[in-house]
Protein: Epoxyqueuosine reductase
Organism: Rubrivivax gelatinosus
Amino acid sequence: MRTERHVDGPSVLARLRTWAHEVGFSQIGVADIDLASAEPGLLAWLEAGFHGSMAYMAAHGLKRARPAELVPGTVRVITARMDYLPRDLAEDWRDAERRRLATPGEAVVSVYARGRDYHKVLRTRLQRLADRLAAEIGPFGHRVFVDSAPVLEVELASRSGIGWRGKHTLTLSREAGSTFFLGEIYVDLALPVTAPEAPHCGSCTACLDACPTQAIVAPYRVDARRCISYLTIETDDPVPVELRPALGLRVYGCDDCQTACPWNKYARRATVPDFDWRPELAAPSLLSLWAWTETEFLKRTEGSPIRRIGWRRWRRNLAVAAGNSLRAADDPALAAALAAGRDAAGEIVAEHVDWALAQRSAASAASASGSPAIATSVDSVTRPAT
């Protein structure tokens, strides 16, 4: 980056807000780069091992909390919010998601991942915003980030007024809940800092109570090793056997802490078509997704965030969800498909398929003996007792 530049900050910020809305962002803010107060919490989280196998979280050390070390010359960070709920989504979407989680045979993909990959959508528009600014004031030092580098994006968003950090660690807004993506532009411009928003969670613990795996170990603290999003997206390892029932029908990510949050009654619809749901991911069945070949998986997830987990991880996740479905309600066609595809994706997937088929056998045996030990609905096997 160049040396810090001084501009007519209020005027530039006003124009940035107009341009941001034109390219699809709902809100922007500006944060200072002094994040020293966030460093102890980051270090404690890493030292507790809560990042699991995400070695990259620890690899950069405190550079995450020091923007000027990550991008020399940075003096401010422009933060941006882009809402992602589909434009035509019904008002009762949270109830609809809960119903799907309680319906055997369904395959549930996290709401944000049913459309286009947000990395590409936001990065393109952030760069467009930066280009527009450069056309106005001349070249300036900047770098665009969308969940792609050691950036404390929730901290920056909180400090710049996008929202506050909720107890589930996501950014929350009074006007938009938490169903939005964040992006940043590190700049060498001394823009005016926008005011932070005060927290409004109060005594509410809805997100902690709703977490299927109790991954929110304390307010504002998540153990990623227990988080369903981590288990289904971030790690190649086998899903721990003791956590498999809690995954329920979720095959990519989890929205439970968001659907439980009262603030998401204000969740906003996207202003761009990119996040409209793909038909094959809107409400798929486990059987239909398991039937995909690897070639079909690559074709159907092109331009989707799902593609990054790869074929084997996808099949592993489907097998766990299928086991939970078979435990709740017998489905001979799904069981037969699992058995037929057992060896197609390697040893780890085969072990998960064996586990899934064992759930069916256990449910059948319990039913024949009249035992009450086997759950009779998917909902009852996805939420362990607290």
